[in-house]
């Protein structure tokens, strides 16, 4: 008797990161050209010729692979054929010049305008996520509640989940203290309005700090009896953290500087 063979049913993934790589590379190249035009990207001056054309596209894709796949710089250098020192130098230089921040701000404005909203939000959602970190990270601590030794990423997002301000602290820093630099970033960009968070953001000290910056802290309950409750728009920050968790470089933190961690986020 023959054996019945049932082919496995395959369904397309709801999200495929590799399908967006070319679009990401195109946007980086567009922003680099804009930075060169407005003078925020100094012209290359050195003994080696700057990467251009296909080599530059390959370098940008390799930097993306470091974040998504969690690869080491030396490993991606071997696979891509671009020296790992060149890749790391490009990433560090573009981070210092603010390329990733410019890309993020343009993405947020384009997304909001396409959805029929104003370019800038009138309310934000704040939260923090504790991540394991390697001993090479510049500072880390122990989150007593989650029993994790590492760092904590503090994030503020608008209603579509696109980040507005990002900061990182050791995991033992309380949310009410770690979120203050994020509030300062928001105020520095002209945001004035409510910042919605969970009940961990209660307290007169944080409320006074927010009031001094023109930001109203609104702590609300997002759970009951251990179950998560999607209250108002407060749930969108949890989705944003789930987006970042898809990128292996952002699950176990190995960056040596806070600036590079924020750049990868």
Task: Describe what is shown at a glance.
The chain has 265 residues and is an alpha/beta fold. It has helices at 21-38, 53-69, 73-80, 84-97, 99-114, 175-178, 180-188, 204-212, 236-245, 258-264, and strands spanning 124-133, 141-143, 148-157, 163-170, 193-197, 215-219, 223-224, 227-228, 252-253.
Task: Describe the structure in your own words.
Strands 1, 2, 3, 4, 5, 6 and 9 form a 7-stranded mixed beta sheet that branches. The chain has helices spanning 21-38, 53-69, 73-80, 84-97, 99-114, 175-178, 180-188, 204-212, 236-245, 258-264, and strands spanning 124-133, 141-143, 148-157, 163-170, 193-197, 215-219, 223-224, 227-228, 252-253. The chain is 42% helix and 18% strand. It has 2 domains: 17-39 and 49-97, no CATH class; 121-264, Nucleotidyltransferase, domain 5 (2-Layer Sandwich), CATH 3.30.420. The model has no long low-confidence stretch (mean pLDDT 89). By secondary structure, it is an alpha/beta fold. It has 10 helices and 9 strands.
Overall structural domain count: 2
End-to-end gap = 57 Å
Estimate the global geometry from the Cα principal axes. Answer: globular
Rg, Å, rounded: 21 Å
How many strands appear in the DSSP assignment?
Answer: 9
CATH fourth-tier homologous superfamily of the largest domain: Ribonuclease H-like superfamily/Ribonuclease H
Low-pLDDT ranges: none
Total DSSP helices: 10
* CATH topology category name of the largest domain: Nucleotidyltransferase, domain 5
Which bin fits the share of residues in helices? 40-55%
Order of helical and strand elements: HHHHHEEEEHHEHEEEHEH
Largest β sheet strand count, sense and barrel closure: 7 strands, mixed
| Class by SSE composition | alpha/beta
CATH class of the largest domain: Alpha Beta
CATH architecture of the largest domain: 2-Layer Sandwich
Proportion of residues in β-strands = 15-25%
**Mean pLDDT score:** 89
